[in-house]
Amino acid sequence: MNWGSAAEFFAMGGYGLYVWGSFGACALLMILEPILVRRRHKNILRILRRERLADTFDNQP
Amino acid sequence: MSNRLINWFKFASPQSFYPLAGKMIPWFWALAAIFLIVGLYISFFVAPTDATQGEGYRVIFVHVPAAWMSMFLYCVMAGWAGIGLALNTRLSGMMAQAIAPTGALMAFLSLWTGAFWGKPMWGAWWVWDARLTSALILFFLYIGFIALQAAIDDARRADKAGAILALVGVVNVPIIYFSVKWWNTLHQGASVSIMKSPTMATTMLWGMLIMALAFWMYSIAVILTRVRAIILEREAHTEWVKALPEVRGESR
């Protein structure tokens, strides 16, 4: 175990800004990217469903 | 032999790759989560304090995986682009297009975490050193690929133009890798190399490798999700897409 307390853990031996700045940026972007990608997939599915619905109305006599 | 060929081409079609990718995604997320938990635990609680860099060296556990993935994904992207150019298969261009944003993200993270490591250790966020400059060029190559594809309306023509850019840009990957040997750089040499045994503590090495696996599995999961969206966007007017259960509204 490297850390005596939580405060010591967050201080990172004086390198807190740099260590957490790096891990934080990775965490932020690697949470954001999957959300955006999933939204893109949901969006095209919504468009396709709407088009299909429009098609069924067009094909009615 | 002929059987194998048929199977390959079966999964090379967007129609059969779409459901296959959908089945694989949860497994890659699970692997990413496992490697991430183990990797982070080693990064912060097992790996010892560095003798010269103190706790500041812990940036390595995200910096090296991001940098490796940025180079590896570029090679995979160029590989798919090259296959698309040679065989004119539909899925190849979609794969290349799906990889580019995640590759760009990894290239950005390698530069960002590099800056946050360079500042305390070298006293500068950025220097025009061969390693840093070639890594910046890699980031611009990804951006250029994305911008070029976005600028061309016809998807197949966009794939071809992008493929040429991607293939020409591959020359940059060995330049990044060997830059620390070829030039006198501020950036340190490789601590892990296929030519010699690693020059770092075993627990640090394991932490780095497991974090690299986590980044790898994450990339595959995100890229497969994105390629599914791209397949639907490009094949929107085909019969098989209209017949998909999620489009027919039978399942959500």
Give a brief outline of the structure:
Chain A has 2 helices and no strands. Chain A is mostly helical and 61 residues long. Chain A has one domain.
Give an overview in words.
The complex is a heterodimer of chains A (61) and B (252). Chain A is mainly alpha-helical. Chain A has one domain. Chain A has two helices and no strands. The model of chain A has no long low-confidence stretch (mean pLDDT 90). Chain B has 252 residues and is mainly α. Chain B has a domain of 166 residues. Helices cover 77% and strands 0% of the residues of chain B. Chain B contains ten helices and no strands. In chain B, α3 crosses α6. Chains A and B meet through α2 of A and α3, α4, α8 and α10 of B.
Features:
heterodimer; A: 61 residues; mainly alpha; 2 helices; 80% helix; B: 252 residues; 10 helices; 0% strand; globular
Q: Most extensive interface: pair and counts?
A: A-B, 33 and 40 residues
Radius of gyration of chain A: 24 Å
Whole-number mean pLDDT of chain B = 90
Structural class of chain A: mainly alpha
**Helix percent band of chain A:** over 70%
**Unreliable sequence segments of chain A:** none
How would you describe the shape of chain A? Answer: rod-shaped
The radius of gyration over CA of chain B amounts to 20 Å
Number of spatially distinct domains of chain A: 1
Low-confidence stretches of chain B: none
